[in-house]
């Protein structure tokens, strides 16, 4: 939801599981912890994706991660 609010489309599931709420099967079957598999996101690049869009997505991910970390630390205090 945080990425959507930043104007970035992402998915929490693999492309072959569209419409499913199940986590990435490829992560779960390679021995990754289920929590890690459930927290993964999928970002797709297209033919017309620009370097600026990729950089903006990285910046948004940084902001979101910082807010999440700050909120977690506040909740634990």
Provide tags for this entry.
4 helices; mainly alpha; 77 residues; flat; 0% strand
Strand content bin: under 5%
Give the N-to-C terminal Cα separation. Answer: 25 Å
Question: How many strands in all?
Answer: 0
Let me know the largest β-sheet. Answer: none
Count of helical stretches = 4
Structural class, by secondary structure, is: mainly alpha
* Shape descriptor: flat
Tell me what the structure shows.
The chain has 77 residues and is mostly helical. It contains four helices and no strands. It is flat, with a radius of gyration of 14 Å.
How do you describe this structure in short?
This protein is mainly α and 77 residues long. The chain is 52% helix and 0% strand.
Secondary structure elements and pairings:
Blueprint: H1 2-5, H2 25-29, H3 34-38, H4 51-76
């Amino acid at each position: 939801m945080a990425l959507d609010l930043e104007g970035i489309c992402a998915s929490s599931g693999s492309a072959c599981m569209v419409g499913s709420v199940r986590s990435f099967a490829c992560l779960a079957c390679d021995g990754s912890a289920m929590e890690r598999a459930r927290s993964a996101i999928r970002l797709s690049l297209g033919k017309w994706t620009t370097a600026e869009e990729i950089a903006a997505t990285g910046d948004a991910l940084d902001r979101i991660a910082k807010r999440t970390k700050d909120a977690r630390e506040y909740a634990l205090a």
